[in-house]
Design a protein that fits this description.
By secondary structure, the chain is an alpha/beta fold. Among the domains are: about 120 residues, no CATH class; about 55 residues, no CATH class; about 55 residues, no CATH class. Helices cover about 35% and strands about 15% of the residues. Strands 1-2-3-4-6-8-9-10-11-12-13-14-15 form a 13-stranded mixed beta sheet. Strands 18-19-20-23 form a 4-stranded antiparallel beta sheet, with no helix packed on it. Strands 5-7 form a two-stranded parallel ribbon. The longest helix is centred in the N-terminal third of the chain and has 35 residues.
Amino acid sequence: MASGLLHNAELCLPNELALLVLDHLEGDNKALCALARTCRGMQYLAEERLYKTIQLVSVKDLHAIIEAFTYRHDRVRAVQTLEILYQYEPGDLKDSDEHRTTFNECVAHMINLREWHIESPYDNFNWGQAGGEGWVERDMQRFRQALEAASVEGPKEAERIAAEQRLGRNMERTVGLALLESLTIHSHGAATDFWELDGFHCLFRHPTLRHLHVSCVAFPTAEIPELESHIRKTPLTSLFFDECELEPKSLLSILRTPAKLKTLTLGENVFNVNQSRRIKPILSRKAGLSLKALSAVAHSLESLTHLDPGWRTEASPHVLRNIRPSGEGMRSFYSLKYLECDTNSFLHKAVVMNHDLAPPNLETLRVRRHWDVPIDMWDQPPEFDHYAALPSLETLELLQSSFIGLELSHADYICEAERLRNRHAKAYKLSKAGVNVKMLIELHMSPGLIPPYLHDESVPIVQCIYDASTVGFHRHVFNDEVEDIGPEANTSETEDFMSSALSDARHDFSTFQALQRARDVADEKAAAATAAGKEAPETEQLGDRDVRRIKGETRRALAILRHGFVRPRHAMQSYMDPFGDDSDDDEQEHDDEDDFLVDDLDEDEDMALDLELDDDAFEGEEGVHVYEHDGELYIEVFGEETDEGEETDEEDDDEMEDAVEGGHPVVEELD
């Protein structure tokens, strides 16, 4: 087609060069628009790239895109990625029904659409506002009709095209959405935050769909008869149910349709329980039926996650319980390598706790715990002995959720010396069974930001905080010798004492220096042992210097996570540049354009994030500033100015007095 479009008397540029030019300009819409105006051939090829991806974040954009589609229908055929992300702006949405209806008709004719993302503008509990019911009855129904047509007519057209190709003839496609591969739908009902499946069972009959992510769907309690004729016929490989009301019988009908489903997330309604829904664990209360439903994908499933609201209703959700269902459990899941759930899930109670019912080739088990559970993973993880019985397990991941500002996301709490040593000792014991332990944190921006996560919302970030294989079990253990510093230092919790002494250093700097000397002695002993070539023995213990190192690494990792929620325009220069600068150069000044912005609209949460990001630096008494940078502690000491402009310092440290000149700080590394 390119040859016919580009070759004429006025254009002699070889096709290969013309296509290279177009490829080079892809993503530069302004340049592609200019190129499209040069000739008809270039217009066609340039617009193929211009309209390849469409993202609509406002209904105000609809008029222009509809006009473009009406002028040249080929632009509709060019769309391969479509994101409908209308924001909730009541004034704009009020008059958008007609434009949305017209655009939805165009969507139904997008024959080359591969990826489609839909978010209702009335989500986030706006479904009760004016227009929310119209979205469900008009927009969603038009989407359903287009998907139904693709499910019915798409396979028929594919057969006709294959027959024509065997005869050496080409046939153009006419069925919209018949090539769709990835679909995400975040919507709601007409009078509730959940929408009924109803005719949307066509989602599970689509002939080309491979990745499906749906949220807030209420599934029927009975099986779905429309899916009986599609058992193991669809190419679906990834299925994500997000905040849904799942029922075992309808789930069985759905899981029978894919030929080779590989990834499955059973996300029940965990968080959307404040408006129209109550806390209602379903799958775990019907463990036998739930396992039967999962058996439909036993031959192909590789990754399984269950998000269960059961921890909200149980008095002791951290207590490990065991149930024994009938049947073989998950012994026939030979491809399953990854399993994720919390301890209240039927997967944990019925499968993990009964090792003879567990998947025979399970390699990684991730156990979750929410921050509202009274016992956290850092302080009291589940007993590791239960997991040592899983014969194929290689990695145990214990995930603790938290949010910025909560103690569970602070390095001092996570790596408190006794907790860290107990954790490492348990990990050592499990390592003898061939299982490596990892501790992970799932950091949220705010406790009020709940799934499903919509466009431009801060998605939680998962980070490994402790990896037993990285920390290791071979070392020379040397502890800080601090007994001679004072009675309050006579404790094995050296790291906690160091933190306490640090806050007192502004009054008694000699105490602080003595503590530093104790650390130096331990470090020198460790260095001497290493230099002497002594082989480190195997041990479950951690020395004081190991605790300090791990805490410093954890602090840096958490700081990076917190900054993951920040956009590059938020006023945080003082945190990003803790050393400061006395220069008056204009280059050091920053306008509003270069400030940092927090990725959230709540000003109170923004301020809380500012305080959290700055909490590693604090002011001491006059002239003393102690802060942390890159896992190391520093202290700045400033001199005082007299009325005559001369500088004076306290007389208890002559060496420091000589170092403070011209108002510049003395910076000492405190490790």
